[in-house]
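The pair is set out directly below:
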Amino acid sequence: MRLQTDQPTRAERAAYLAEALAGLYEGPVELAPTPGGRRAALRRLRDFDPRDYARTRNDVVRRGVSLLSPYLRHGILGLAEVRDFLVTRFAPGPGLAKFVNELAWRAFWQLVYAEKGEAVHQDLEPAKVSLRRERGVPADVEQAATGLVCLDTALRELYTDGYMHNHARMWVAAYLQHWRGIDWRDGAALFYRHLLDGDPASNSLSWQWIASTFSHKPYFFNRENVERFSGGAYCATCPLAREGCPFDASYEELAVRLFAE
């Protein structure tokens, strides 16, 4: 028999969660506004099925994501708690493995923050490409009025609901830095002001990953990427789709346009 002072096993923690979840009322969870509290967090966790996560997680429109990030950010759910519940409920597979990997990334950002402290809000490494460093978020971005449907849709959701799909965050961050030449710190501050899951470590370090000040290369995207991960929905209604789309080129062509000195 275990001593009462022993820590519960993973299976015991998951069983406790399952019992708590079993008593919650049924029904779908709405995306926005994000309901607060432990009860809402447990409902969200109960309703998340990670088995298809690896295939659908990057789809900005269909959204095969967990929507657990606000609860993780504010400590309503713990990383190990979420992992233990899911790995005891679902059989091993690529979707579950990918989701647990994403939890590990969140833990990694926290470890970097614990080591570097407030230094994460400044360049941790030299940029691997030439970056412009203009200060201040442009008015059209603040107003979600760039004319680019893929970006304006994401920005409106950010300002209205405090949420933005992770893949759309990458698009917006890359656009601000590499196309508009805005210092990543101002973009990170914009996100932090609005995101319900805004976390100092994950936010600043992710912007640095886009910039190449905490990665071996910058992240940028092209129109093919937007069409692929939105099912073509954004380009189909974008006034700049026929001409004027700044993303309509190959990666090789864009690299020359964006980073050639």
Remarks:
- The domain at 10-119 is CATH 1.25.40.80 (Serine Threonine Protein Phosphatase 5, Tetratricopeptide repeat).
